[in-house]
Amino acid sequence: MVVLPVSKIWTPELHVTNGVKTTIKHGNKDLLVHSNGTIEHMVIMNTVVGCEVNLYNYPFASDFCPIAINVWALNGCGMFLNFGAVRTTSENRGDWLTENVELNAKGGRDDRNYLWVSLKMRSENPFLSLVLPSILIIVADVVSFSLPLGGGERISFKVTLVLSFIMFLIILNNLLPGGGQCSPIIRKHFCFCLVILVLSMLQSMVLTRLAKCGTLQPCSLSKSKDSLLKDTDNEEESKSDITVIKLNASEEEKKNTPLQKVVKFLDKMAAQDQKKMRRHRFANKVDLICFCIYLTVLVVYAVVILYFSFGSRCKINQLDFWS
Hints:
Elements: E1 2-5, E2 15-16, E3 19-26, E4 30-33, E5 39-40, E6 43-49, E7 62-67, E8 69-70, E9 73-74, E10 77-78, E11 92-93, E12 96-105, E13 113-121, H1 124-143, H2 153-171, H3 185-213, H4 219-247, H5 251-310
Antiparallel strand pairs: 1-4, 2-8, 3-6, 4-5, 7-13, 9-10, 11-12, 12-13
Helix pairs in contact: 1-3, 2-3, 3-5
């Protein structure tokens, strides 16, 4: 055995087929040469690999990333790599966990070797920062149906929820993963949450208007109708007063005239209260029906989103760089 400097011995040039940037440096300035021509030497290779990771099930994503390490070879002429044991030295790096590394060859060809790296995303942090707040906002919107329609408390609460969710999406817009070939399903989840919150807010506004006025017409039209009804009532009262004066009724009837007016006023107030009660009962029935539909839609959506998050996969050809 002879120890010689690296600069005196020819060393093969390794390259990563799907690498974006690769740097190779020698682990030592010297190498060991055996009498049979075998050379013992260590090379340190740092590479950045262009690998499209499947983020369809984000934040519960898991995928494979190939690292194609090869040497020059053409039509059976050139150099060939003989890989030994493959092992990992560091599995925990950031939000991704390296589960396994295997050595494969595409189509059984010796000049197309690649390391098949199995990756899995740590879902705790994205779930707590992205998914859990959206679920809590939807739960708060469901509970807000217990608030009464009158008074405006429900509408103000739902408007606050919608604005809070919009600000939440604006803040986390840059943190969401990009589209790519398989767009993350979490983007569709946020879109559904925003649409369902806005529809719930609009439903509460319409029912509040219906419970208060009994109609969905604009305020100006309803007020004009009420003023016309009041004018006709005043005219009828004035005509009745005039007829009482022309009849020259007895003293007892004249004494009972103020009492009749009071009774008539009380009857009118009771009729208005009954009308308001009928409007409120009708609005509450419609609100209960809307709540049942809303809850059913949420249950169906929860089943669908769980199926697509854990039971559905989006396929990506990770070896398309050899196509």
